[in-house]
Design goal:
The protein is α+β, with helices and mostly antiparallel strands and 155 residues long. It is built from two helices and seven strands; from the N terminus they run αββαβββββ.
């Protein structure tokens, strides 16, 4: 069985052999724990956690994309409920039981905050044989306008 001092000597020899092959090598660790880190020539050793800029940008973009997907799904569910209630109130039938986003853009709400304005389209029917277009404007999660459209009223 090797002694701890002998193991240290073996690791130091390996480190020096490794350092000869590399442009820069840094020996980190304590007795029994030896770590080798290589750095390219001409680059100083960085202290602390070094995260490349590409990874930071990728994480930020992925987070923004996940937020947008989650927020859009939440607002779409609100829009479906509002369209169903509006069609019920007007005595018409919401076709396909869904809404489709037709436009998304940044806008300011009443308090001056920057939120997403979404315009949803849906179709409804008065008799079940025809299709009429309707629209719904959402500013963030708030409903701004519901348009069922003009209908002919017969006697």
């Amino acid at each position: 069985m090797q002694r701890l001092a002998d193991i240290n000597v073996i690791h130091v020899r390996r480190f020096t052999q490794h350092a000869d092959r590399c442009s820069h090598a840094v020996f980190l660790g304590s007795i029994g724990d030896h770590f080798f880190r290589q750095f390219p020539a001409g680059r100083e050793r960085q202290k602390g956690l070094a995260v490349p800029l590409f990874e930071l940008i990728s994480i930020a973009l992925l987070s923004a994309l996940l937020w947008f997907w989650y927020d859009s799904a939440r607002v779409r569910e609100i829009a479906i409920r509002v369209a169903q209630r509006a069609c019920q109130a007007e005595g018409v039938q919401l076709l396909d039981e869904t809404v489709a986003v037709s436009r998304t853009r940044p806008a300011r709400d009443d308090e001056g905050r920057l939120v997403l304005q979404r315009i949803y389209r849906f179709e409804y029917s008065e008799t079940g044989d025809n299709r009429r277009p309707g629209s719904l404007v959402m500013l963030g999660p708030a409903v701004v306008a519901v348009n069922i459209g003009l209908r002919l009223v017969g006697e």
